[in-house]
Amino acid sequence: MGNGVAASEKTAKQPGRAAASREWNGRNRRVRPRLRALVAVALALAYVLSLAIISIEFTIASRDRGPTVPFSLMLVAGGLGLVLLIGYIAIRKRFIHPLETMVGRLRTASRDTVAPDWNLDEGATGEIGAIASFINHHSLVVRDAQAALTSEIEERKLAEVRLRSSRELLRSIMETAPDAIVCIDETGAIIIWNAAAERVFGFREKDVLGEDLNLVLQNGDDILRTGAVRGFLDRDLPALAEDPTDVVATRKDGTSFNAEIAFAGWESEDGRCISAFVRDVTEKRQSEEHIRFLAHHDSLTELPNRTLFNDRLAQSLALARRDNSKVGLMLLDLDNFKQTNDTLGHASGDRLLRVIANRLQAQKRETDTVARLGGDEFALILPQFRSAADTETLATRLIDIVGEPVEIDGHEVQVGTSIGVALFPDDGDDIDQMITHADMAMYQAKEDGRNTYRLYAEQMDAEVKDRKQLLADMREALAQNGFQLAFQPQVQLSDNKVVGSEALLRWDHAARGPVSPGRFIPIAEQGGLIVDLGEWVVNAACTQLQTFDTLGLPPMRVAVNISSVQFRRGNLVQATRDILERTGASPERLEFEITESVVMSDVERAIDIMRELDELGIRISMDDFGTGYSSLSYLRQFPIQKLKIDRSFVQDIETEEDSMEIVNAIIGLSRSLNLTVVAEGVETDGQLSRLTDAGCELVQGYIFGKPMMADDFETWMGDWTGGKPR
Ligand code: C2E
Ligand code: MG
Ligand code: MG
Predict the structure, then answer these.
(1) Which of 100, 159, 220, 722 qualifies as a FRET site for 673, CA 20 to 30 Å off?
(2) pLDDT confidence of 726, banded at 50, 70, 90?
(3) Domain for residue 162, yes or no?
(4) 401 and 279 share a domain?
(5) What percentage of residues in the chain have a pLDDT greater than 90?
(6) Do 593 and 616 fall within a single domain?
(7) Which ligand 1 atom is nearest residue 537's CA?
(8) Which residues form ligand 1's pocket by a CB distance below 6 Å?
(9) Cα–Cα distance list, 136 to 71, 116, 381 (Å)
(10) Ligand 3 center to 701 CA (angstroms)
């Protein structure tokens, strides 16, 4: 068969040669009979002619020799011979030659395995012609049939190859698929079970073939009896391709797991079948659950986060609106948490937060929500609260509980908390208002000394508005150069010389009159204005130093107060360097007053900044000393030159021995650390003499001079005689 294809291909590939050979055959067929006929006629003529000559010679001779074979007999014999010859030629032409040709072609053809266009003698007529054309016709039919057969065989071969490779593909997919592939027939019996199915379910293929799908799916029956799967098996649906659904699957050992299953339907010889693609999604579901949890919970304490808190608050308010009940909202902010965090390290800070979170959790009723809103801020949603009095009881309890000491890494740590309370619907009727008002109450608690609670009151709203207004006014005043500095002298007790002054910020508000720094500085700190304002103060103090020099005042230092926010957030060192360059003031004449809390909130960073300032030549004094939380061991590392005894101790030294003892202790500490000590807020002669006796070196207070505007200070200085002012 292959030869036949090859031969036909060969012919097809050489059309020129085939045509030439056909042409040559035709010509051959036409030329040879004509030549043979001519030869036959020539022979016949020669034969007749020779017969005639012989007859004539015989006739002449017989006239001489007597009677012989009659001439007419010879003529008949000659004629007969001629007829035989012509007959032979005719028979040859009509029968023998076409038959020879046919046989020759058939012989050739029989060697050819391809059914050719035999094309038997086209010139043949009569019966042989009919036979030839019959054979010709059928040779063509056979040839066409053979060609069709050949191409069909080719196609089949191709189909077989394709089938084989798609079987291979299917097998490799089934074996390598990460998902279990389980196929069932119309009755629900398992007919295919891949390698992943063995892994996922623990059953070997031989154990499950022919078994019911129920063996591995807990609700396998329901799946087969209902929905699109059933529809497909019942032939109600033409096709099936189902999106994955969640099912509970069972392993060989009886344990169950969450799985995702998708179905596809297909037809087999025996009927409809279903392929089930089963994926173990236990881990996926767990991580989804974890992600969902993280989206709504704080990872450190596992308490609900702000998102969930908002949600729960909205829900509680909606329920309370329906039931006409009250909801309490408490916002808690830990006091001085940052200090603890910085001193003990962040890991300890985290542990502390977890302990506080657990303590708060332990206090909540089932319907309450304790949330962590961020940093050291917590919130409690208290549905079904009867009255403000109830919230007060709870707030007091929470302050006590949070305040209980916590043992962390061998340290006993204690934190306080400031709580703001707002009640729905009395203090707000939506979540924003409730949060804002509880927040205001919490700030009020902070301002009122911390570690306490405040219930929201309407005037807090007014206070917040007022603070906002003041902040806006301060911004404008700063832009319009509306601030001023007052200078308060510092006197050296050994010789009554004015060795320095403290520059204190003054703001004369256009509408309100003078506003005290105690009021506006915290607002500037919270409103983000303190860095600019502080820079303005340093610049004004340096400029004034130059003016004092120009006016011929005795050389003295000017001390400037640096806010904690300015110290931490601002680029204090660089800004100061720029100002010194710009104003030409000498750094040795500039002093920065910082408080203990500024330093203790981030000791390492504070030491770095202080060192840089020290390198610049600026002196540093510790303001309000004794009121904050100083670690004496750190104090030794600080590059400071002065301690300022707070006014709160000085004002009581005449009446309270404790205060005098504290002042003595601070003076003793200053000596041992080689620091200068300044007492501030000295008003009376009694205070002055006690301080003098205790060995205090410098004094600042109304007894010598109140803070004065620069002009007044110049005059005062001119009047200063080295004792009390004239
Ligand atoms: P401070 O730095 O402790 O300033 C001393 C305060 O005590 C000043 O109050 C001063 O007027 C007052 N004082 C001084 N001697 C006496 C006295 O004998 N008796 C009484 N009763 N008071 C006396 P002032 O000016 O109201 O400043 C209050 C606080 O505002 C300052 O306390 C300081 O912390 C802050 N402050 C003032 N100016 C600035 C500033 O430019 N920047 C920053 N960050 N804070 C400033
Ligand atoms: Mg000060
Ligand atoms: Mg002070």
Answers:
(1) 722
(2) very low
(3) no
(4) no
(5) 58
(6) yes
(7) 41
(8) 488, 504-505, 516-518, 521, 534, 537, 561, 563, 593, 623-624, 647, 680-683, 700-702, 707
(9) 53, 9, 105
(10) 11
